Amino acid sequence: MQRNLDRRIALTVAALAAAVFALTWTFPPTPPALVEGMDPAAYPRLICAVIILLAGVLLLKPGSDGEAEQPLGRVFWITIAACLVYVIAIYLLGMIAAGLLLLIGLGWLWGERRWPLLLASSAGTMAAIWLVFVRGFGIPLPLGVFGD
Amino acid sequence: MEGFLGGMAILGDPYILAVILFGTVIGIVVGALPGISGSTTTALLLPLTITMTPVAAISFLGAIYCAANFGGSITAILVNAPGDPSASATAIDGYKMAAKGEAGLALGISAIASAIGGIFSVIVMIIAAPLLARAAYNFGPPEYFALAVFGLSMCAAIGGDSPAKNLIAAAAGVLIATIGIDMTTGVERFTFGIYDLTDGVNFVPALIGLFAVGEMLEQAAQRAAPAVAIHMDKVRIPGRAEFRKCFKAISLSSILGTAIGVLPALGATTSALIAYNETRRWSRYKHEFGHGAIEGVAGPEAANNAAVGGAMVPTLALGIPGSTTTAIILAGLIVQGIRPGPHLFTEQPTLLYAVFASMLAANLLYLVLGLGAAKLFARIAMIPAPILWPGVLVLSVIGAYGPEQSMGDVYVMFAFGVLGFLFRRFGFAPAPLIMGLVLGKLLEESLKQSLLIFDQSWLGFLGRPIAMTMLCITAAGLLLPALGRLRTMRRA
After folding, report:
1. How many Å from the N-terminal Cα to the C-terminal Cα in chain B?
2. Cβ of B398 and A112 within 8 Å?
3. ipTM
């Protein structure tokens, strides 16, 4: 099982490295007079070649029969969705308000049902972040379309 | 001597002392939080240091690094969930001691062994780092190239499923470091017309994404069953008989931990695991190991804290990170405009000795805090995951946004978060990627300069004995274990 997985990983890594290798041909040509030591495309090509070589080693490596990877559960996909919603909410509501909503929403989705604790800890965290970053270090955080 | 006294003088500055105390407390607390390692914390709090002076920044990061290893032992002993990977060996006997009703004693010996190991390694660092820097003072680009290759090759031995995967991760880090404008020719590489990428990938969002967001997604993917906490009364200082029993373990592990820490890439976790095995090997009470041996706590704790000072030696003297956390500290210094290396010892000796002083102070502080308030730290570490991890995510986003006030960095952070998650999922350790990212520029610049010196001929390396020796050691280190495995396979 593990060996098959490692083989698939090795082939994926080699394919990605080959794609990056191919991308180096899209770099604009450099006049030879400007090149010092090594062409700007040659170095990434060298690294890609090393990665392909290492993928080959991984492909040939004898693997053990490890455990199959557990499928990703509901909480994981909820967290990914929450990250996307959070980024959109930053644009609309600003970083502090969006953060507060994320702390409450994600905390609840992760299984915290003690509302007083959830609300108090979320408000406390955002207040601490505002104090340290905005008041303490003077970093202006986005206020969102309504705030701006 | 002037630099040394200047460095030590920072301990008289109330601001620096407050920064060290804050770093130590944060280090213990987050070190104790299961899932958040010292490297994750250092990455997460890196944005805070950007507004600090270089001395305060490195004192803060150094204090976190020192204290997180000790903090990890608190939850390892009380709930069998190592707060930091470096405390995984401590959990074996520490939790058994706690189960026998000796939690206070286990925490006491952990604090003392950690402080002894930590202080020993800082003393070694004070002596060895300038000597190593002096030896490396005349290193040219070929030697630095060989050193960087050696440092990256050491990644083969850290974490992950296999050496090949670790080396792939390190090479991927080196490749990511090529993103942006090539400094010698002005050619844009892999920027895809995105303005935010023209200066390359910023260290801060990349580090936060890989460690904090990647770990958060991993936690979301496999919500672990809550560990059962063991009751403890208060921390007990070991008696003379107990201390005598642990003396050999602490001494041996302090030396081992420092020596392993000095090797590039190998840090506290490797040191603790090797020290646990060696402590058991040389112990008169082998039968106690695995059943609550006090030496089984003292050995790994002395070693993982000794590795901290050891890891700082190549980081400061050569600019080659000795561990994952020192790679992040190195990135923090680069962000501050400081490139560690032999020249730093002549140009900014006060800064370096300030590092030594702050680490010495942090070791003493966590000894006091560990003996006096371990119970409180253990209670803080019981923050429920649904409160903790969303908080880590919010802090990550703000931490990534803060330094440049750019949403582009937030996207970079998320991209690295997904990459970090995929790495963990498919058996790659994220640490080699960071090593590659941090060493990438040095590797490319030194290779280009070397080829310029050698008139484009790779054979020029043959005329540089130090560089050739390092390259031969690298080749031997990579090929000999592989040949050994091949021979074993043929026999089978």
Report:
1. 60
2. no
3. 0.90
